[in-house]
Amino acid sequence: MLLSDDLRTPPAVVFTICASNYLAQASVLGASLVRQHPGMKLVVFLLDEPPQAAPAPEHLVLLSSRLALSPAEWNHRRCYYDILEFATSIKPACLLYLLGQGARRAVYFDPDIKLLHPLSFLLDESEAETLLLTPHILTPLPGDGHAPTDLIIMRAGLYNLGFAAVRNGPRLQEFLRWWDAHLHLMCRVDFAQGLFTDQKWMDFAPVLFEAAQVVRDPGYNVAYWNLHERTPRKTAAGWQVLCADNTAHHLVFYHFSGFDPGQQRLSRYESRFGTRPPGDTRALLSEYAQDLLTAGHAALCRRRLSAPKFAGGGTWDKVCRALYRQGVEENADFGDVLEDGAFLRWAAGVARKDPVCRYLRALLRLRPQLAGYNHAELTAWLLGAGRAELGIDPALLKRLGITHPPQVPAVYYAGYLRTHLGIGEAARSSIAALRAAGMHVVTHDISATVAAPAGEYGLTSDPPGAEKPRIAVLGFNADALPNVLPTLPSELRSAYRIGCWYWETPEFPEIWCDRFEIIDEVWVATRYIADAIRAKATVPVLVMPPMVTPPKVEPDRAWLRTRVPQVAADEFVFLFLFDVASVPFRKNPEGAIAAFMRAFSPDEPVRLIIKALNTAHDPSLMERLRQAAGGHRVSLLDCALESLDRFRLLASADALVSLHRAEGFGLTLAEAMAYGKPVITTAWSGNADFTHAGNAALVAYDLVPSAQAHGPYPAGTLWAEPRLDDAARQMRRVYAEPEWRHALGQAGAATIAQQFSAEAVGAAMRARLERLSAHAKQAAPRRARTLAPARRALKRRLAVMLRIGRDILKHPGYYLARLSKIPALVRRYGLMGVVHRSAQVAALDGGIKGGRGN
């Protein structure tokens, strides 16, 4: 697409403002303009460079938004504002530019608008200067608790600035210059300061500009915010709007604000209608979605707006923006912020009595959780996670004098790095967190030691370096340790060993307690696991949760239907995921199905997807679940998904349900929350570290000991039994109350970002490893010294057990009488505790018998 700096301005101009990722919307708007007003073209003020692959459609004229402002002012606004604020801040400047080029009339439309009837403003012959504005609503919004509300409209502004039309004149230009001057600094989205982009300022228009007119035609600017009073209808004569008084009007243009063509939902900004808007709106949305597809939306929407560049190198970022706003508030003079160098010199300097430069201080205000980092750690974060999260350019850091940190200690990490397992995902995320914190990680994959589906995750190993790591993190559970440890390279076996263990019940198995003798410390994901292991541990047990930062993927119902064809466009989708290898009884898919069936009837547009992995461990399970669903809208998905598709599945569902009986951590819960999805989950075990009543729909439960063993969990294990009536109630509420659902999702996402971000997790792990690194050379000899008394203790235990065995053979009746009490004693004292107590009882009993014989 070519960008023209020349425009032969006709008497009437229709224009929009957008970046190239919105060119599909602009193209649909331009095509609709040509259909209603043949011979006209849509002028597009582009905020970035256009795509070069294809020429612009004939109905578009592409102009650079630079034309509307001086170079210094253009640089100021694109640096001072985010993309939404920047695009809206130049609106009056673009109007003034077009009028200055000779246009008598100018009409602005947001790019996500479609014209469905001619604009009378472009057809009349009046020459009187004027400004036309459309109010959001003509009648009050219902007080039904759904968004938007009258208060939301008041905060955003009385008039919607997706449309404005002007006729030129001196008083109009004076008003536009007043508006533009205020948008120099006050086009922010800041409700606390009474600001909402350029829009809020138009509340002044009817007062300050007497020729301003409010368009009360209900066919103008129809959108989600006024469908309570306007019902779109498709008729033989074209699109119309039916009002509450039964009058019909031409639907002149519809504003698709917040519409996602992949979801067919009315708008992400509203909760009143969802997938069931009034009248024929669904047909209008479907037509528009197809228009976008034809205009190349799928490819264009993925384009990213390039960040501004400093003259001489370095990319503008969010830290720069925050610091620039601070400097402007302090009346600092930077000239042209990108060209003159004054801003970079100021950012590299330090304020009075501040030990760090202004750029780093601005970063710490944006990310207060980094406050505990030292300079090396902070720089490592900037060059690692900071590059991904904030778009930080190493070239900029170099210009600011922020140098690369010194070499940090290296670490080995062994785990199931290619497997589709929760413990494999935890290992991968921990490695990413360590690297984000600047650690040097040498990886070792043990996926071949377990029978589980595997994939290519692109996880590479850092080279060992001059000095080999002296610490090894073993990202696999205690039960696997004896079998896997001998297969590891000798350098891992001789290092200081940290076991990363998961366990799901309050009682850590006694049979695994000998593992404490071959590791130096244990890392666990939650306090729940820590409590279980510390009760029996002889080494330090620290809580080190995994990083939870799933990749950014968009909800994609079209993709979801390729996996689950039964999913309808208007269905609300609950998702339940579990690994059959992780013991189905613990995950409780039957409970999820039962609660869903209690909550919803088969004719309601609600679906439950059960996604299972490793079903070969129980071949008949899926058929049992299918029968349990009993004709309800329950779909079973049985396949291994690559990592990105697993996240796409999470992002494409509307809510996640997990009626587990116990979780060590609850990784899928945390990942769903990270995507802003509401979660319905049992209010017990490991997920209690991050789920609470403010960010999740918690299900009540009863603690019940099991009557039989399940996998590695013996009979008598204490499990949470979720109350299905309460689960059904919570699922029903999540479906029926969009505002509550949205609030849970937002709160959940904030919790995960705060507790499990790369900086939070990586910093904690790195701090511990740095403390250990100074003593790691002595760790292996210490372990070797402790093995001798451990072996002596083992011999003593074997001697006691042999003595009891002989005594059982000698006095079988005595022990049979106590047989029923043994399981309870094992639960209370552990296996070795029972052995010791039995030895004492046997010795005491022998003494009594000896006394009687004497």
CATH A-level architecture of the largest domain: Alpha-Beta Complex
First and last CA, distance: 110 Å
Which outline best applies? Answer: globular
Strand content bin: 15-25%
What is the spatial order of strands in the main beta sheet?
Answer: 3-2-1-4-7-6-10
List segments where confidence is low: pLDDT < 50 over at least 5 consecutive residues: 1-6, 776-782, 784-794, 825-854
CATH superfamily of the largest domain: Spore Coat Polysaccharide Biosynthesis Protein SpsA, Chain A
Quickly give the structural class: alpha/beta
What is the number of independent domains? 5
What top-tier CATH class of the largest domain fits best? Answer: Alpha Beta
Radius of gyration: 33 Å
How would you characterize the largest beta sheet? 7 strands, mixed
What does it look like?
The chain is an alpha/beta fold. The chain has five domains: 12-298, Spore Coat Polysaccharide Biosynthesis Protein SpsA, Chain A (Alpha-Beta Complex); 318-399, no CATH class; 412-543, 3-Layer(aba) Sandwich (Rossmann fold); 557-756, Glycogen Phosphorylase B (Rossmann fold), CATH 3.40.50.2000; 782-853. Helix content is 39%, strand content 16%. The protein is built from 33 helices and 28 strands. A seven-stranded mixed β-sheet has the order 3-2-1-4-7-6-10, sandwiched between helices. Strands 16-15-17-18-19-20 form a six-stranded parallel β-sheet, sandwiched between helices. A hairpin with a 4-residue loop joins strand 8 (189-190) and strand 9. It is globular and about 115 Å long. It starts with 11 loop residues before the first strand and ends with a helix. The model is unreliable at 1-6, 776-782, 784-794 and 825-854 (pLDDT under 50).
